[in-house]
């Protein structure tokens, strides 16, 4: 096991009816800015429940945070914070709204010249942030219980990540009932997103960390079992609850303690979203199977463990078990309604040079758990993913 | 899954050499009281490393916190805190030292008349506590990453638990190297203690919580695999690291999210320690096998899951699989050097009435995940454990 630090102070309030707890979770004298995306929270009742729970607190609103939240939009929210002397942010939505709120929280009190520097420095220049909480409506990104965020700057086609210990939500409310009405596409994306988060922390090389490995495998098995059920029976509370908790545990720091991490799939995926607008999970579903095939030698031992413990593949030679495991994973993504080839999204070989150029422009030239995923290897991955 | 709240702000600094991080973890202007047990930290170098890391900070010391820390001893530490205007506590030791420090932290600022009321009210009357951290030397109790403690009052033969959200360590430093020199008895006790902690949260009744179940099973499997290796090769870093992290994850709130909890074995065990001085883990090793046998109908489904997933028992009828699983667990405790019958400790049927009377005196009359473990059932358990 590698040395590590673990710190995660986010209070999770989980279960049906828990939105009412906002009345104790948000300070009574807070001047709140409630941030959300489109109109879904008006349709599913979340907006009304949140407002009711906040009672007589002063609540301003900022709506219109888009999927892959943009710097351009979020800077408007920062202006609202300053205009109304807001001292508490409440994100109501999925990972994009929570990620965006983290940026607003940091940018509103940023001491530098331009808050975009937060992304350029990956958050190392964040020394404080406004306190904030979240009400999660879409299990997927894990943003509700971590301190990271990914922000897009449309004008320069950049999608970059930052993180800071000042950017943990103080609390997140997770009510599985509020996920019943999610569109099928978002359910599928969410399951794939959580699955790939686990893989980025698990499918590297062994460091003798059996607790972390088994936790990771436990989340993967749960996503495989419960994901399809959520598509079949959308109003099954237990299925929704298990998916919601699995997605949170997939990226709250627990399974990454003391183990190497990859994240190359995410970095290449970010370029696909920035240049071509694909959903985040779609990019992961395209890149990961190809990445594992290209890097199967470097990841051999963990691929065999994944084949055995997650897919029950114990017969045949090593190469066939590895290929079967990757194929099963890819088929699972397709089962969740997420296509896994570039061509499924109208993309081909002609788009690869620009993607590689973007990776290089963003200094994503040494990716992966051993920093040996060069632009040339990223090109091989993209070519195999066509 | 049941509704739940999860909150755990303890910062974990894990790995070889991490004691040096105290220099950043403890405030530079702190007036520190360092609390420890006997002389082992002088022999294994921990004392010197801690002092070095604390640098020029003002550090007072309080030694002599015993296994099953007593109210009598701890109140002397409270007097030291007040005499020296201490504003930060640093526990250096195992679960007893950390538990004791939690009580000192709460008692030093307690607003009531007598800090023993903290135990009588189970901590519900704790409104604040001094900040504190820990350096863990004995993986076992999980106290390094939770907010609970068990305190003994010798004068009245009482061993009671309390907990408060104000009593999380701010940080805990876990260096597996510092566990190399532990006596065999403490290694065995620690593994059994962690194992039973998991069982109290896992072996109840199913609520469809697959992530939590698999996490629990992952910790149990790790303890079963790594525990005996720690006895065979005491200076194996990886084994010690895995045991240390397994014991922390066993009782930091992660695996208890959304599931029922039992704790009847612990409550009966506390009486055995209070009346007869047995090690905490010895009491658990005695009580748990008998408890599972007496309550095998109520726990049937989870016992079958435990037999299957932890012990690989899939053949034979249900009753034989359940008995085999319990026997295997009991044999594992014995392998770790912890005897599992009352008679192994010189105790027999004649001691049971007083144990039951103590349970009743401490209002431990409705125990277990369904509150149906009456004194009569506790008596059956003790009789079966002879």
TrEMBL record, chains A, B:
Coiled coil: none annotated. Gene3D superfamilies: 3.40.50.1970, Dehydroquinate synthase-like - alpha domain. Residues 9-176 form the Alcohol dehydrogenase iron-type/glycerol dehydrogenase GldA domain. It holds the Pfam family Fe-ADH. Signal peptide: none annotated. SUPFAM superfamilies: Dehydroquinate synthase-like. InterPro entries: ADH_Fe/GldA, ADH_Fe_C, ADH_Fe_CS, BDH-like. The keyword Glycosyltransferase does not apply. It comes from the Bacteria. Residues 190-357 form the Fe-containing alcohol dehydrogenase-like C-terminal domain. CDD domains: BDH. Keywords: Oxidoreductase. Its cofactor is Fe cation. GO terms for cellular component: cytosol. GO terms for molecular function: alcohol dehydrogenase (NADP+) activity; butanol dehydrogenase (NAD+) activity; metal ion binding; methylglyoxal reductase (NADPH) (acetol producing) activity. Belongs to the iron-containing alcohol dehydrogenase family. This is Iron-containing alcohol dehydrogenase. It comes from Undibacterium luofuense.
